[in-house]
Amino acid sequence: MMYKRYITRRRARFQSLNGVVNLPWGTAAEKRDGFLWRGDKLLCAASAQNTKDFFVQDDDGQGETRGRLVTAILACLDPQEARQGASNARWEKIWADRRCRAYKRPDLEEHWIWTEDFYNAPIGDLQHIADLVGAKI
Fold it and tell me: How many CA atoms lie less than 13 Å away from 43 in the CB half-sphere?
């Protein structure tokens, strides 16, 4: 899917090719030629980790909700939580759920890494995952 509008799902602080990026939550960005832009400032490649870490698509006007859901899901599955045993049951639910498996990278059998589609998923799918892991938004 080719998305055009993105927003920050949390404060975006990172070093870009053009200097330091520091954008507050909810800041709009536009995808052009495979990169995210804020006005005339290049932020990052649309496929970069910074895009996954800080942005979600907003073409459907649901970017704020999508961002809150993605952030809440990732917080519930945080590795620090796993070390404390809190997220093991949540991960078991993720592995067992067919809908979730649509968002798992297929090239890794023993580890779960979300595909790029997860960060831009329909609200219904994200809400299902959030409910599954007990994420609160």
Answer: 30
Q: What is the mean pLDDT, run by run of 10 residues, along the chain of 137 residues?
A: 92 93 97 96 95 97 97 87 69 94 92 92 97 91
Distance from C-alpha of 52 to C-alpha of 47, rounded to nearest angstrom:
8
Grouping H, G, I as helix, E, B as strand and the rest as coil, residue 97 is coil
41-45 and 55-57 beta bridge pairing = unpaired
68 membership: H or E segment, kind and range: helix 63-76
The whole-angstrom separation of Cα 120 and Cα 64 is 11
How far is the first Cα of the chain from the last one, in angstroms, to the nearest whole number? 26
